[in-house]
Specification:
The chain is mainly α. The protein has a single domain, classed as Rhopdopsin 7-helix transmembrane proteins. It is built from twelve helices and four strands. Strands 1-2 form a two-stranded antiparallel ribbon. A two-stranded antiparallel sheet has the order 3-4. Helix 3 packs across helix 11, helix 5 runs antiparallel to helix 6 and helix 5 packs parallel to helix 7. The protein is globular, with a radius of gyration of 24 Å. It starts with a helix and ends with a helix. One of its GO terms (molecular function) is chemokine binding. One of its GO terms (biological process) is chemotaxis. One of its GO terms (cellular component) is plasma membrane.
């Protein structure tokens, strides 16, 4: 993804930066000056607290999903491989959050070196793209599994899932390499403030900026959201045709998948599109506009990372088969007499015991 949150400094204050280019475009940017954005520190510190909250929740929920999937080997449904990889991508995203928070509270400055900037950016971007792509694969797989591949052997399905997962990781890596390659650590000439920004080839800076943002919008949102919406709509219709009594609740869950993805990602990509219009001068430049874009890009990307906390609940814990495996993996048996918890062998926890435990916990 385009990391506007982490490399988008206050607009217009570029005159004292040692820009590694001599093009007329860079000179034009250097001459633009805007006053300091009001309440900027309050915004950045507030977002930092929200990121810390996302980090804590994500570091609790996603490792549980990873651990249970590894312990259980199989969760009894076809999307096991995607859920495991989704949890891994979300986990790596939240692991990088403390690094970005340190930069955020320092007014987006970067004092951790260029290598750290590139590595952290690469890890963040690869896993953010990967998370979106695995959600997309999951929507396709769930529909195809109940319509076209019902008679396919589990071994062949497993092999296909593994191949798709490898391709997803490679695609996410390829989409993240260009922005990572052009990252540089630059120092302000007047006050020695250091920033980590992307510097594209000097004769095509504008084209690179627009191109990278369009890639983020099209491949990071429009295409995945279209696929997710279409396949979950088809899945909902297929489930309705089956006549199952649980159709209504299942359709609500499917609807929640689409809504959560839309709510998390649509605001951010709208802000990115507005930023593209600003670069193309379709929106007349004003300091108020630039301050608004600065705020919008920061706030909406903060909202987008909430998905790292929601995904484990929405795609794992809400599934009754997964909850059963979770109970088996943790293997806790409650004693009514002593009130103590006794660890038991996971292989001895039957489905009947699980149901009893679940009823007693209500």
């Amino acid at each position: 993804m385009d990391l506007h949150l982490f490399d988008y400094t206050e607009p217009g204050n570029f005159s004292d930066i040692s820009w590694p280019c001599n093009s007329s475009y860079c000179i034009l940017i250097d001459t633009v000056q805007c006053p300091t954005m009001p309440h900027k520190s309050i915004l950045l510190y507030t977002l930092s607290f929200i990121y810390i909250f996302i980090f804590v929740i994500g570091m609790i929920a996603n490792p549980v999903v990873v651990w249970v999937n590894i312990q259980a080997k199989t969760t009894g449904y076809d999307t096991h491989c995607y859920i495991l990889n989704l949890a891994i991508t979300d986990l790596w995203v939240v692991i990088t959050i403390p690094v970005w928070v340190v930069s955020l509270v320092q007014d987006n400055q970067w004092h951790m070196g260029e290598l750290t900037c590139r590595v952290t950016h690469l890890v963040f971007s690869v896993n953010l793209f990967g998370s979106t792509f695995f959600l997309t694969c999951m929507s396709m797989d769930r529909y195809l599994s109940i319509t076209y591949f019902t008679s396919t052997s589990s071994r062949r399905k497993k092999m296909v899932h593994h191949i798709v997962c490898v391709l997803v990781w490679l695609l996410a890596l390829c989409m993240s390499l260009p922005s990572t390659y052009y990252l540089k650590s630059v120092v302000s000439a007047s006050n020695n403030e250091t920033y980590c920004w992307s510097f594209y080839p000097e004769h095509s800076i504008k084209e690179w900026l627009i191109g990278m943002e369009l890639v983020s919008v099209v491949l990071g949102f429009i295409v995945p959201f279209s696929i997710i919406t279409v396949f979950y709509f088809l899945l909902s219709r297929a489930i309705s045709a089956s006549g199952d009594q649980e159709n209504q609740s299942i359709r609500k869950i499917i609807f929640s998948y689409v809504v959560v993805f839309l709510v998390c990602w649509l605001p951010y990509h709208v802000a990115v599109l507005l930023d593209i219009f600003s670069i193309l001068h379709y929106l007349p430049f004003t300091c108020q506009l630039e301050n608004t874009l600065f705020t919008a890009l920061h706030v909406t990307q903060c909202l987008s990372l909430v998905h790292c906390c929601i995904n484990p609940v929405l795609y794992s814990f809400i599934n009754h088969k997964y909850r059963y495996k979770l109970m088996k993996a943790f293997t806790f048996q409650y004693s009514a007499q002593t009130g103590l918890t006794q660890l038991t062998n996971t292989t001895r926890v039957s489905e009947t015991e699980y149901l009893v435990l679940e009823q007693n916990s209500k």
